[in-house]
Amino acid sequence: MYKMSTAYARVLVNTLSEQGLDAERLCQEAGLDMKLTAIPGSFCERSTLYRLWELAAQACDDPNIGLKSAKNFHPDIFQLVGYTMMSSSTLKQAFERLVHFSPLIGTGFTLFVVQEQQHYRLVTIDHHQRGSIKPRQYTDASLGTLLGAYRWLSSGTSLRPLSVEFSYPQPQDIHEHQQLFGCELHFGAAYDSILFDGEELLRPLSTANEGLAKLHYSYANAQLDLLNDSTMVCMTRALITKRLSLEQSQVRCDMESIAAALSISKRTLQRALERAGTQFTDILNYVRQQLADFYLRHSHFNVQHVTHLLGFHDHSSFHKACLRWFGMTPGEYRVIQSNLRQPYTLGLDVRKVKQ
């Protein structure tokens, strides 16, 4: 069972009320206790929020209602994580803090930042749960929230990202998408992501405070230590993802080093993962598969470099892993995915995305 912070649910409730909907009735129908949204540190099931977005879209007959939550952004949506972002020195560091402390916001997803030439892409990998289908409105709200963070922290309400990728097929009407993001749009992508201008992300934040940053970082780490076994899986997955990313590809990524990073023993980590119904090698293989898919789809790195990034000792091992994951070699998979990747670009003719 995946969960999300009820602070995020509060934004959803506020959006419903602003649209003139009966938020209390919709929450009751979806199974969300509205009282929880006022309790700091509380969580609700992610599937409940999925259901609430679906009900909201039906009630107002507006499939774009998720996009409207962007204007409700404030750092307290992320609670403690939001304050670590506010006190960060730059937007890049703020997003890195968001990635690091994302288990405090919820489980069932992994965030990571990847550099693309001089720019940076913030990627969300959602982890699927049997019987729970992510509605389009949830994706819109999530990407809109990231856009809101970008603009709020940089004090630039008119700032635009370079491109946005949506994991759902292109809707018939994307006018509201264009108005909100104002940049190149891609639909039918493998993951939800936003590409930010590198120069903008490296500008100093007006809210930066080194003393508060240390205090917030220390306290947020302490809160991570209090999370339960299911969140330990999320934390382990997040650390592995970070260590297999571009900036930390030289850092060890075995069970012992991950346990040390979590300030626990290897045996304690092993027991926590077992109680959650998994083991370290399963999580490592899952993250490798997700990142292999991402790098082969999105990056221009050659296969040898991807092999190195993902911690494989040789090309043969990565080759065999791709055959197991995708049923084909890395090169074949890259060619097929590049042929399927057909974006809609703002200002150009619309092209259908092959599904």
TrEMBL record:
GO CC term (a single one): cytosol
Segments forming domain HTH araC/xylS-type: 236-336
Extent of the signal sequence: none
Transmembrane segments: none
Entry GO MF terms: DNA-binding transcription factor activity; transcription cis-regulatory region binding
Gene3D superfamilies: Homeodomain-like
Keyword match DNA-binding: yes
Keyword terms of this UniProt record: DNA-binding, Transcription, Transcription regulation
PANTHER family registered for this protein in UniProt: HTH-TYPE TRANSCRIPTIONAL REGULATOR GADX, HTH-TYPE TRANSCRIPTIONAL REGULATOR VQSM
The name this protein goes by in its record: HTH-type transcriptional regulator VirS
High-level lineage: Bacteria, Pseudomonadati, Pseudomonadota, Gammaproteobacteria, Pseudomonadales
Gene: virS_5
